[in-house]
Amino acid sequence: MYNDRILYRVSYQMTEDIYQEANHLLYRKRMPGICLAIFGVGIIGMIPDIADGIMTGTDILDVIAEAVFVLFLLLCLAFAVLFLGMKVFMKRAVSSSYKTYIGLSGRRHSVFFYEDKVVYQSENSQAEYHYEKFWKMIGNKKVVIMLTGSRWQPGMIILPENGLWEKRDERMEKFLRVKCINVKRGIEHL
After folding, report:
1. 134 and 151 in contact (C-beta within 8 Å)?
2. I want to staple 12 with a disulfide (CB 3.0 to 4.6 A). Which of 127, 156, 163, 186 is the partner?
3. Each residue of 125-145: pLDDT tens digit?
4. CATH classification for the domain delimited by 8-14+105-189, as one of 3.40.50.300, 3.40.50.2300, 2.30.29.30, 2.40.240.10
C-alpha cells in the first residue's frame, strides 16, 4: 500500500527551450558512444587491409604509417559526426519533434514524488513509476531528467529549473539517490 502523502512536487509549463535542453542533455551522453562505435567499426574495417599489407610483404613501417593515417581520418570523422550531431542535427530534430509531439506545447506538467512512486501528470495524460524503474538521472543548471524504460528507447521525466519546485534542495537529491536504487551515481551533473 502506498503512502499518499506528496513529499516533493514540481510543476511547470512545457516550452520548446525546456524540451530542447532536456534532449540535448540526453543526447550529449549518447553522442560520444556513437563516435566510439564509428571509430571501432573503422578499426575493424582496417584489419583486412593491414593483414593484406603484412601478407604481401609490404614494409611494416608503410603499413603502420597507413594505419595511423587512416585512424587519424577516422578520429576526425568521429569528431565531425559529434559536432554536427550536437550543433545541427539535434537542434533541428528536437525542434521538429517538439512541434509534432501533440500534448507538450504550452501544456502544464506536474511531477509528484511520493514515498514509493513518482506520478507524472500533464493536462492530457498521467503515468506512474516506481523508483526502481529509473536507471539514470542527468542534470545541469537548467534541467534534470529522470530516465525510465529501455536504454534504446528511454522515457524521460523532465524537471526544469524554472519549474515551481517545492522544497528544492539537497534533501531532494539525497532522497532520489536513496530511492532510485538502479541509478548508480545519483544525478550526473553535466
Report:
1. no
2. 163
3. 888 999 888 988 888 888 888
4. 2.30.29.30
